[in-house]
Amino acid sequence: MVVDEDFQNTYVSPVEESVCGVEETVHEVGSVKITDYFDRDGNFVRGKIHVMGTTIVTTEFGEVVDPGRGTSFFDPETLTDTQVDNIFDIHAGPGGVLGNDSGRLVIDATTGEPLVINGPHQAWFGEFDDACAVLAP
């Protein structure tokens, strides 16, 4: 089974929910493709989600852009979620990368805890200091 959809959202993240402690306007646009795989007997054996999109976060002080993409594989036998690709790649103008979350991350789907970490995963660990320096100086 395959679901392939485009998405576009704009919302305001209140101060108490903001990573940087200021009100943020978040605009997301992109596409998501969800694929479920089944064996010959009709049993679910794997799930795959592929997302490509751009997120723009704006505050009264500045703006950051994340042209991220990622693929996630769910294994129902091991109850793990494996995320690969360049999930977050946060930029602000010509200043270079402010945050990066790329490589491979295997997560226990029941607890949300990381089991395997390959590559930088700043967003996963909440390391947004450089982005917050732009959004909430």
Low-confidence stretches: none
> What structural class do helix, strand and pairing data support?
mainly beta
Share of residues in strands:
over 45%
Oligomer state of the chains in this structure: single chain
The general outline is elongated
The value of Rg in angstroms is: 17 Å
Compute the number of strand runs.
Answer: 8
Largest beta-sheet characterization: 8 strands, antiparallel
Specify the helix fraction band: under 10%
Give the ordered list of helices and strands: EEEEEEEEH
Number of helices: 1
Mean pLDDT over the full residue set:
90
The rounded distance between the terminal residues' Cα atoms is 46 Å
List the helices and strands and how they pair.
Layout: E1 2-13, E2 24-38, E3 44-58, E4 63-66, E5 69-75, E6 80-91, E7 97-108, E8 114-118, H1 129-135
Antiparallel strand pairs: 1-2, 2-3, 3-4, 3-5, 5-6, 6-7, 7-8
Task: Provide a descriptive summary of the structure in words.
A hairpin with a 4-residue loop joins strand 3 (44-58) and strand 4 (63-66). The mean pLDDT is 90. With 137 residues, the protein is mainly beta. The chain is elongated and about 55 Å long. Strands 1, 2, 3, 4, 5, 6, 7 and 8 form an eight-stranded antiparallel beta sheet that branches. It has one helix spanning 129-135; strands spanning 2-13, 24-38, 44-58, 63-66, 69-75, 80-91, 97-108, 114-118.
What distinguishing features does this structure have?
elongated, 8 strands, single chain, about 140 residues, mainly beta
Brief synopsis:
With 137 residues, the chain is mainly beta. Helices cover 5% and strands 60% of the residues. Strand 6 (80-91) and strand 7 (97-108) form a beta hairpin.
